[in-house]
Please model this.
Amino acid sequence: MITHELPTEQVMLEAFLARDTSYDGVFVTGVQTTGIFCRPTCSAKKPRPENVHFFGTAHEALLSDFRPCKRCRPMEPSGTAPEWLRPLLAEIETDPGRRWTDQDVRAAGLSPTRVRRWFKQHHGMTFHAYGRARRLGAALGHVKQGSRVSRAAFEAGYDSLSWFQAAFRQYFGSTPTELEGATVVRVDRITTPLGPMLVGATDDALCLLEFVDPRALPTQVARIRKGLGAVFVPDRNGIVDRAARQVESYFAGTLEAFSVPTIAPGTNFQKAVWDALAAIPYGQTRSCAELAQGIGRPSAVRAVGSANGMNALAIVVPCHRVIGADGKLVGYGGGLWRKQRLLELGQSVSPGRT
Model:
């Protein structure tokens, strides 16, 4: 039987008062004096502790007659772009090659500082850096398709070829012609009920799907970059869109197995472990010892656990279905609370062997 260790009320209170992002999705807080419930990360002034009530889900808060906060929007997936930003994001998608200035942002009725802060928080870069990366990524695509570097530069919005070359080298570490043979991985951020995820795909296959975690992501990105000889650029393609749709269906409970093509650079042993993970049926779990036995390496339990932790295709390759031999939850890169919710989604109740 899977056992869960939920946060104590004191832990939740401390996380709420500290606006701890790692608890966003674990619980919501209802404030007795206002009748409003919020995310743990809400930027509103914190109430007195005795006026705070904790709920596991937004649904529970609604049933207790609390209404959702208009500032942190706890009914929406964590990381969802706010309404004030959505027109700007739509314009970026319509014309990714456009060079935006602070004056352009103000003309759109937005504060450049506010936009910069949101992009820094959710994409790890400023709005202008994001725009430059999008233009450079598009330029690299043109070069790989046979366009001359000068033409690619002007199509990317650069008036000077030398400026383009300098910007390209600064971002990618190489010149456009040096990267003609590189694999391009398009990456974008999607929202889920358990927080934002980073999706990365080549033109042919999904290679990255991870919950956004600044501690684990750099290692995964570096490993994929080396394994595929790839460069990462912020963008979308058909595989990213397909993966995003399937993730949405998975969380909606209408999809149990993913069909998006995948590629996972690794050793033969790691690939054997990942294949075994992918074979765990929906709603069931396995221990590392069972996985090791299943791939014919019964003494390699620790190595199986290590390979499990290096899986870069969360949910698609369901490493969250690996639990301890005693039925308890064990480490998960996305956090144990996410692992718990994913197992609950699959209604997993025991280390199934059928």
Summary: The first strand starts at residue 28 and ends at 31. DSSP finds 14 helices and ten strands in the chain. Residues 22 and 251 are 20 Å apart (CA to CA).
